[in-house]
C-alpha cells in the first residue's frame, strides 16, 4: 500500500469544493469533509478553525480565476469593465453552488479585495469620480451575480400543454429548457451591453 497523503489546507479546500460542486453548499459539513478525505473531523481543525474558514478559502480559489488585467493595463474602461464582468461570470458559472456564499461580499478575502481595488482604481484613473466608480463596481457585481444565481430558462418544463392553453403568448416556452445555456449567456450579454452603453452616455454627459 502507498503511504497516505499528507493532509493540508489545499487538500481540504479542494475536497470541500468537490463536495459543494457535487451536492450543494448546504451539504458541506466538517464531518462530511473529513469522511471525503478519509480522516477524523478533529484532524481538520488543525488546519481550519471553522467551516466558514474553509468556505473563505474555497471562495478565494474561485475568484483567483477572475481577470482584471485590462484595468491594470489601463485599457479603455468600457472594454475593461466588460472583460471583468465576463471573466467574473465564467468563474461563477463553473461553480454555481458557491454563488450564494460569494454573494455575501468579499469580507477580508485578499483575492476579492484585490479585484475590487483593481476595478475601482481603473475606473477612477479613467476619469470616473470615486463615488461613481464604487456604484459601477457594485452594479456590475449585481449584474453578474444575478445572471448566475439561477437559470431563467431551466425553470420551464418541456411539456407544450403546460403553457399553450393558458398562456397564449408563451406557446414556445416549452422549448426554452433545451436551450437554457445559450439563452442564459445571450441574456447576460444583452444586459451587459445595455449597461455599458448606458455608462458610456453617462460618462460623455459628465
UniProtKB/TrEMBL annotation:
InterPro entries tied to this protein: Homeodomain-like_sf, HTH-type_TetR-like_transc_reg, HTH_TetR, Repressor_TetR_C, Tet_transcr_reg_TetR, Tet_transcr_reg_TetR-rel_C_sf
Example of a GO biological process term: response to antibiotic
Gene3D superfamilies: Tetracycline Repressor, domain 2 (1.10.357.10)
PROSITE patterns noted in UniProt: HTH_TETR_2 (PS50977)
Pfam families in UniProt: TetR_C_1 (PF02909), TetR_N (PF00440)
UniProt KW keywords: DNA-binding, Repressor, Transcription, Transcription regulation
Annotated DNA-binding residue span(s): 29-48
GO MF assignments: DNA-binding transcription factor activity; transcription cis-regulatory region binding
SUPFAM superfamilies: Homeodomain-like, Tetracyclin repressor-like, C-terminal domain
Record's protein name: TetR family transcriptional regulator
